[in-house]
Amino acid sequence: MAPNPYLLAADNPQALISLLREDPSLASAQDEHGYSLIHAAASYNHLDLLRALVREFKVPVDLKDEDGETALFVVESVDAARVLVDELGLDGKIQNEEGQTAREKIEAEAEFPAVAEYLRSIDAGSSAANGKAPNGMELPPIPGGLQVTVGTMDVAETQGQQPDPEFRRRIEELAARQDFQTPEGQAELRRLVEDAIRGEEFSEERSVRPRQY
Q1: What Pfam family is a match for this entry (predicted)?
Q2: Based on the domain organization, do 20 and 96 belong to the same domain?
Q3: Is 135 a member of any domain?
């Protein structure tokens, strides 16, 4: 009797890879519920199998089951999530039939908090790249009279320049607060960002003081 590829995906990923090389058509197969080998590899944290399915056997990394869920919805480890998102390019914003992203579903089930935290960091990075704060709010406008020029800097120009440790401490402290996502917390974040844009420096004695040249 031919081996069951789903059992091999759980217990013997190397044997499954050998089987797929004999019959590549099995790689993209799905059961009656749309569950696939890429879902199984992600769930059981078999990272080499996950990479092989997408890169060698050309399985779509965004293959969905009957609930509209990709493999990211079933990961149980940060490593598997990183392989799917960072290495294989899976879009973490894909929603299932209920309108949830993988992060939202994992947060709601509260079983794998480390995975949820990683996916939150991905969302925050994406929001920042689009000019938004972690909660989706627009970052504050640049104060009048200031101009921002985007370009490159020579390494020598940046040597010895380190972020103000007090400013960094305040940002981290604010992000850890339970009210960070509230209007009050976001207003405080906006004030900190505006102060940084103005070039003001933080100290222990006062919230800000003018930078001395």
Answers
A1: Ank_5
A2: yes
A3: no
Say yes or no: 32 and 100 in one domain.
Answer: yes
Tokens matching residue 115: 């995975």
Tally of domains in the chain:
2
Domain that holds residue 213: 144-213
pTM of this structure: 0.60
Long-range contacts of 107-114 (CB under 8 A, 24+ apart): 111/76, 112/75, 112/76, 112/77, 114/77, 114/78
What is the per-residue pLDDT across 11-28, written as a single tens digit (0 to 9) for each? 999 999 999 999 999 999
In a domain, 188, yes or no: yes
CA distances to 5, 133, 137, 147 from 13, rounded to whole Å, are: 9, 41, 43, 55
Low-confidence residues in the chain, pLDDT < 70 = 1, 125-164, 197-213
